[in-house]
Amino acid sequence: MSNQEFVVLGQDDAAGSCCPALLTTPLDEGQAVELAKVFKALGDPVRLRLLSMIASRAGGEVCVCDLTPAFDLSQPTISHHLKLLRQAGLIDCERRGTWVYYWLVPEMTDRLAAILTRPAGESLPDRTAPAGAAS
Fold it and tell me: What is the pLDDT of residue 35?
């Protein structure tokens, strides 16, 4: 079980500030590297389905024994995908006897949503003409 935590981009917990830098300020190299790890974890269809299955499960958690049959993949392959989701900070788990139970880390999905959200009240640029085209 991983206790690895994702670094919150553009957030200073000490100041209690919130909100991402992605749509308001360019990311620095370190932020881009950390954020890319999370998006890479989400970039695989199997991992995206696993995350969706875990997140949408009534009761908030699901046994790996209920996840594996949904895929035409071996149990070790499913475990590998789950490990990558854990390392990205998207899910967490706990072993109970012979089974492992997984749940979503809602703080992480909330942070990702905030990183990708346009600041309130900000209008979209006019995209009717290509950039640089004469009017």
Answer: 87
Dihedrals phi, psi of 81, to nearest 5 degrees: -60, -40
99-107: long-range contacts (C-beta < 8 A, 24 or more apart)?
99/63, 99/64, 99/65, 100/63, 100/64, 101/61, 101/62, 101/63, 101/64, 102/54, 102/61, 102/62, 102/63, 102/64, 102/67, 103/54, 103/60, 103/61, 103/62, 104/51, 104/54, 104/55, 104/60
CA geometry: angle at 77 spanning 74 and 78, to 5°?
A: 90
112, amino acid identity: L
Q: Report pTM.
A: 0.73
Tokens 């900070």 sit on residue: 89
Q: Which tokens hold the place of 50? A: 């696993």
Q: Do 2 and 83 meet the contact criterion of CB atoms below 8 Å apart?
A: yes
The one-letter amino acid at 72: D
pLDDT tens-place string over residues 38-92: 999 999 999 999 999 999 999 889 999 999 999 999 999 999 999 999 999 999 9
